[in-house]
Amino acid sequence: MRIATWNVNSLRSRIDRVEAFLERHDIDVLAVQETKAREEQLPLMGLQAKGYDVAAVGHDQWNGVAIISRVGIEDVSVGFPGMPGFKDKAEARALGATCGGVRIWSLYIPNGRKPDDPHYVYKLDWLQRLREAAGDWLDEPTALVGDWNICPTDEDVFDVKQFANSTHVTPPERAAFQAFLDGGWAEVTRAHAPEFTYFDYYRQRFERNRGLKIDFVLGSPALADRVTGASIDRDERDPSVYAGSPSDHAPVIVDLAD
User: Which of 33, 99, 104, 218 could form a disulfide bond with 69, CB atoms 3.0-4.6 angstroms apart?
Assistant: First the structure.
């Protein structure tokens, strides 16, 4: 079974690239973040014609998550128990579904904006609530996948000194990520694919390999034991490889033994 996660930065804008990616890599399940659309606005006919089912949630032009599967979609959950909103407004940041016997959660963790911004407090609260909910999922083959908006180590940022007063690298954020690992989850991509997954559009960040590693797959013990490999499709981020504008994220792919 092959699963992947990808922040596409607008599914409507990049549906052709998504369809081509699924076919090129023979993907069974793709978790998508930043769809930036309501469900009824998504162009799904091409995916459905190729045999994929889609579950999605979105409220407006911001956020939005989806799961695209050709091995079935069952027991769809919009959000997790206790998931907070920002300033009492619900956001489309978490979607769970069982696909081919594996519980997949497509997650778009809040950015945080700045350490002194209310969004940063919201981010830490969101992560704590997710960890509390996820404690009940450890006994089943479960994957928490998506854009975590955290660089867990200094090696995950091209120049940590440039982020000295920024989010993504602060001790509380890193502690929140580590708390998942301490709680029994395993990050399953780093050993196979340590490269960056995000590159800002500005200043030729991709061409200069000045990126961040913020897209991860955390597996329960039953899922982590099945991982046989992982990779990052850097060609999808390379503006010179495929026609059209790429997302600022590269897809992350994980292979599971049957």
Answer: 99
